Description:
By secondary structure, the chain is α/β, with parallel strands linked by helices. The protein has eight helices and twelve strands. The longest helix has 13 residues, at 124-136.
Amino acid sequence: xxxxxxxxPSPSPHKPELPLHGWQEGRVATPLVDRLDDQELExxxxxxxxxxxxxxxxxxxxxxxxxxxxxxxxxAVPDPRIVRMHEAFxxxxxxxxxxxxxxGVHTAGLCRFxxxxxxxDARIENVVKTVVxxxxxxxxxxxxxxxxxxxxxxxxxxxxDLVHHVGVLYHLVDxxxxxxxxxxxxxxxxxLDTHVAAPGSAERSYVSEGRSYxxxxxxxxxxxxxxxxxxxxxxWLLLEDLEAVLRESGFARVDVEERRDERNGPRVxxxxxxxx
Length: 276
């Protein structure tokens, strides 16, 4: 019997109030936040609908949790996946494209290593929050709205050295076509972190560019739910198909860096290289 991943729970109407002070985990110098007094930081935390938070150099919360049980711990800057990406690809002097910047936590981490960072998101509120958070970290990435499933939006993106692609692919209606259209814009490689279909759970199939791909149909809340994609469902591909699509798209080597079982289902982290 296959255990089916469960949809994201609805936000609790009773959002707990997190303390401003006393955070030790994840403390990181945040130049423009560190200068604020408590009243100013509390105002900043109320100005935007934050769904995650970092901790400044004084141990104060910058941002907020999403709801009870969701993003209630500090986010690391840089995220360990970015550190590993730097070790694998060497981000120094490179231009990195971040697909799905959310609230700029990973964006700020990428800016610590790369020469240039372009960050995009389909939700305008995430674009605004990313601009604010990275500015408070003293970073200057290029941030703008982009629906990566819209062929015209994707075509406007310039070529980059590397792509940071975390938590987005499985939300897309046609993940295969997305990867095939994105690949020609990538000169060196890609970090891809995504849910995949568990064995036996790929109960449906769809056709992309004339070929059929099996997938797990995962219900989502659509555009109104911030941790969902833009539609009512997501397609979780089989890992073997995902690897094959990457290789067919010009990535000579695909390394499975990590496999993990999360509450919603299995997830993998891949590094895809243009040359072995």
